[in-house]
């Protein structure tokens, strides 16, 4: 199962049980190994770069790892890693800009961000 719209609005914290939960499975999909998708869902700032150019399809599982990376980056930095004035500019920046970590990020956090937000989905860590 992939969520396809992981963003801060859909990440809930249960302070009583110290648990993090995902909500809003509206665009989620059941997937199988080797399956490719050809459509783009989710919120532009949290969408993996491969989703925006779907010629030939893309592996769906790494896209949720990307979105979780954007959530973590945004939670810690207070701003999304790739910004634009419109959806198209966000997509272009996500595909073309280098990831820059703020100086406040520890070396370990910056390393994790570079792994989770790797433009090549085959190099991202798995869930």
- Give the SSE order as H and E letters: EEHHH
Overall shape: it is globular
End-to-end Cα distance, whole Å, is 11 Å
* Record field, number of beta strands: 2
Number of helices: 3
Helix and strand content put the structural class at mainly alpha
Low-pLDDT residue spans: none
User: Strands of the biggest beta sheet: in what spatial order?
Assistant: 1-2
Largest sheet: 2 strands, antiparallel
Q: What Rg is obtained from the alpha carbons, in whole angstroms?
A: 14 Å
Can you give the mean pLDDT? 95
- Percent range for β-strand residues: 5-15%
Q: Tell me roughly what share of residues is in helical segments.
A: 25-40%
Description:
With 127 residues, this protein is mainly alpha-helical. The chain has three helices and two strands, in the order E-E-H-H-H. The chain has helices spanning 61-77, 87-96, 107-116, and strands at residues 11-14, 19-22. It has a two-stranded antiparallel sheet. A hairpin with a 4-residue loop joins strand 1 and strand 2 (19-22). The chain is globular and about 40 Å long. The N and C termini lie close together (11 Å). 28% of the residues are buried.
Give short descriptive properties of this protein:
about 5% strand, two-stranded antiparallel ribbon, about 130 residues, globular, 3 helices, single chain, mainly alpha
């Amino acid at each position: 199962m992939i969520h396809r719209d992981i963003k801060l609005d859909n990440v809930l914290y249960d302070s009583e049980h110290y648990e993090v939960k995902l909500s809003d499975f509206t665009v989620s999909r059941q997937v199988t190994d080797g399956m490719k998708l050809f459509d783009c869902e989710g919120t532009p700032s949290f969408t993996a770069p491969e989703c925006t150019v779907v010629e030939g399809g893309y592996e769906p599982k790494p896209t949720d790892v990307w979105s979780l990376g954007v959530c973590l980056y945004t939670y810690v930095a207070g701003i999304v890693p790739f910004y634009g004035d419109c959806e198209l500019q966000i997509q272009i920046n996500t595909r073309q800009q280098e990831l820059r970590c703020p100086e406040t990020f520890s070396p370990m956090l910056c390393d994790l961000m570079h792994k989770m937000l790797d433009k090549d989905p085959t190099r991202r860590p798995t869930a």
